[in-house]
Description:
Elements: E1 21-26, E2 48-54, E3 59-66, E4 73-78, E5 80-81, E6 89-94, E7 100-108, E8 114-122, E9 225-232, H1 238-253, E10 263-270, E11 274-278, H2 286-294, H3 306-318, E12 331-337, H4 347-355, E13 358-365, H5 371-377, E14 384-387, H6 390-404
Parallel strand pairs: 9-10, 9-12, 12-13, 13-14
Antiparallel strand pairs: 1-2, 2-6, 3-4, 3-7, 5-6, 7-8, 10-11
Amino acid sequence: MTLSAPGPCNIQVRGQSPMEAYIAYTHDTDAAHSDSADITPTQGMYTNAVLAHATDNAVLTEVEFLDPASGQLLWASNMKPRVGCSYEFYSDKFTCPMTNFLVALYGSDYLGHPVRRLSEAYCVGQEPTRPPAPSTSTLAPSSTSSGTSSGTSSGTSSGTSSGTSSGTSSGTSSGTSSGTSSGTSSGTSSGTSPITLPSSSPSFTTATTGSSTAAPPCNLKNIIMDVFLVVDTSSTIGEDALEYEKTFYDNFAKAYTVSSTGTQFAIVSMSNYSYPNADFNDITSWPQLFGQLNQVPFDGTVGNDLVDALTTIQGMVTDTSSGYRPQINNHLVIIFSTTSWTGGDPTTVAAALRHSGVNIAAIGYGPQANIAQLNAIVGGQDCAKSASTNSDLQGSILSWILAKTCSATPYCV
């Protein structure tokens, strides 16, 4: 290299590290060792914290939020280490500075070289306060109680439920509960039905607004299953609803034990063409699934080529190197679609997949979703549902698909 201009000069040498960073967010910010996480932070008055996992023994030291338009620094925090968690680093508390912003993680790899990883975050609407999970046991009536439960539902309802305890019971519960449900919620967020799961159910977190989620009829953590997630990235869904879709899939996945011996996940994107984002070998834990979902880009092209998407899945089913397990008896394709299919009629390839033992369920989201077409490709009745709001999606639709997977026999073939 020769230099012709006089005076000093600077030379920058840049390299690329294989280190990957996975980012999540938690609202349980009073417990630094909580591993409960969501794919997006919550906006409004809620406080959040950044959780992060780094590969290759990397150390993360700082996180910054940046304005995506100007690059202006919005917030910064040190990343503190912790042990015994999937996400081994966490930040200070924060409230969303704007609807979407860039997240920059700083640290060093295993050789001590500085690294920086950049991603984008979208803040979603507020979620209601979750009450403690109720006991599933039936208590015998007793004449002694230091508190009474009032305001529980007694036959009829008007408006939304007002069913929180106005007293605290100790010992045994009193013989009857009094009160009828009327007006708006008392003790929980107004106009909402927060999720309550029986104490014997697996722990998973979902947020609903106006749509309740019932507990699944089995222990989802014990299910062994291969799941293909078809992610609609087309122009019809838009960037905001794509985040709702990712959150739905994230809430679905974390109800299970994500591992090579438990429930496996593969991801296929779909717009006017389809491509595999990850096969079963790429995802062996929930943080990896979270990271892969978070990296699915908004394509923005017009169309839902289900033929291409299902053909891609068919290729994974027959490819012995994809991690697909033909020896197990629970295989599921979940199709998320916001518009009519393009690229040909997918009923033939869908029938071939179902004939091979793969269950197919579908969710039509938004006003342009074609539920009649989705019913034509799924396996049997009650295997396609429509949702018009994010509340329905994260509530009743999530409850429905979780319960489906509890079946010991094929359920959507």
